[in-house]
Amino acid sequence: MVDLELSPEQLQFQQMLREFAARELAPEVARRDRDAEPDPELFAKLSSIGLPGVSIPQRYGGAGLDWIALGLACEELEYVDASCRTALSVHAGLCSTGVYQWGTEEQRQRLLRPLAEGRWQGCFGLTEPDAGSDVRALRTRAYREGDLYRLRGQKVWISMGDQAELILVFATVDPEPGTRGITAFAVERAAAGPGLRTEPIHNKYGLRASDTAIVYLDDALVAAENRIGEEGEGFKVAMSCLDSGRYCVASGAAGTIRACLDMSVTYARQRQVQGQEIGRFQLVQQMVAGMARDYDVARLLWLRAGWAKNRGLRSSRESALAKWVNSERANRCADDALQVQGASGFSEESPAARYLRNSRATLIYEGTREVQTQLAAEYALGYRQDRPVRCPLPAWPNE
Ligand SMILES: Cc1cc2nc3c(=O)[nH]c(=O)nc-3n(C[C@H](O)[C@H](O)[C@H](O)COP(=O)(O)OP(=O)(O)OC[C@H]3O[C@@H](n4cnc5c(N)ncnc54)[C@H](O)[C@@H]3O)c2cc1C
Hints:
Blueprint: H1 8-35, H2 42-48, H3 67-80, H4 82-102, H5 105-116, E1 122-125, E2 141-145, E3 148-159, E4 166-172, E5 182-188, E6 196-200, E7 212-223, E8 227-228, H6 234-270, E9 272-273, E10 276-277, H7 282-310, H8 316-340, H9 352-361, H10 369-381
Parallel strand pairs: 1-4
Antiparallel strand pairs: 2-3, 3-7, 4-5, 5-8, 6-7, 9-10
The structure holds flavin-adenine dinucleotide.
């Protein structure tokens, strides 16, 4: 039976997150967005409250909480700062989960522990200039030389790519088309040599305070013992990481929707037009009602996916559906929140424009809106069925 009620511990955790976000993120969020300046202390701040390893077992350096806790963290962080939520979901959802699920026991101690303890920031390097939605077109090559691999290629649009100490890079050991050669590597920046270079991407439409980078791999070195899974298993690794990443995007999007709702309610109760609050106008009510509806839907969808994950069940369909619906609705709610405020919403003095620009990214990354639509159709039509993965998520409690 799906239980959607938060426990007293989860409510306490949620309250702690709200206070953290209000204290540590809110004061500078508008300035950082305006100046397109990632917070260099952000990851240390997240580490100070144990968020990098929130759902990783304590025996690997994590906080030992569950998937719902990670979802709550994403929702509460994005309520204030979507760039911060992106950092957490890339680190915890896309990168650490991959090492946890597919890594050996030795790799979990050596590679996952520093990630979970917040000593290393992690990121996820899948996209290339000519391989975005079509992962099969990936061209970055991995050449084995004794105990090492040399990586050659380029990754683009990599969130936290300029800051992260560990990049989960996907490269192929077999140039033939298809997915058979794709292999995952935990590339340590400190050990990769001069062949690894990263460069920030500037002038983004949104998520301006988020580090987004190009990763150049010109004979970057990675120890064979840092290969995650077997040669040729990288496509499966990437897809299971995306299940968890999409879960984080979906729960984060609920935060944007709630922020839009709260802001719109406050404004609609204050702004007087024709001698009455604009909240009395039916067309304004329609926008506010849509936000209230979308928040409940978004919340239920991410909780359902989290519930499945807590039981070690594969949640590819649930996570993709939640990501699709919630990201679309967050972007629509941000547009409506701006509209409710009229010209005031059109000013950067209001957070509405930032919500609109930031939420636009979620329709692109971790599978575009069109890719999610296609997935939903394929599940509905019976063209796609999930087989159990070789490495199911450990059920929670995961100690
Ligand atoms: C802010 C930001 C952060 C990102 N962070 C990361 C990261 O950390 N790691 C990482 O690896 N990548 C990251 N990405 C990259 C992102 O995952 C890709 O941009 C995304 O997968 C789409 O790939 P593309 O940009 O090459 O678009 P394309 O794949 O070229 O798509 C172009 C258009 O064609 C549509 N299209 C493509 N295929 C189909 C199809 N089969 N049916 C219908 N329509 C289709 C798409 O929906 C889109 O509208 C990030 C991107 C952004 C914007």
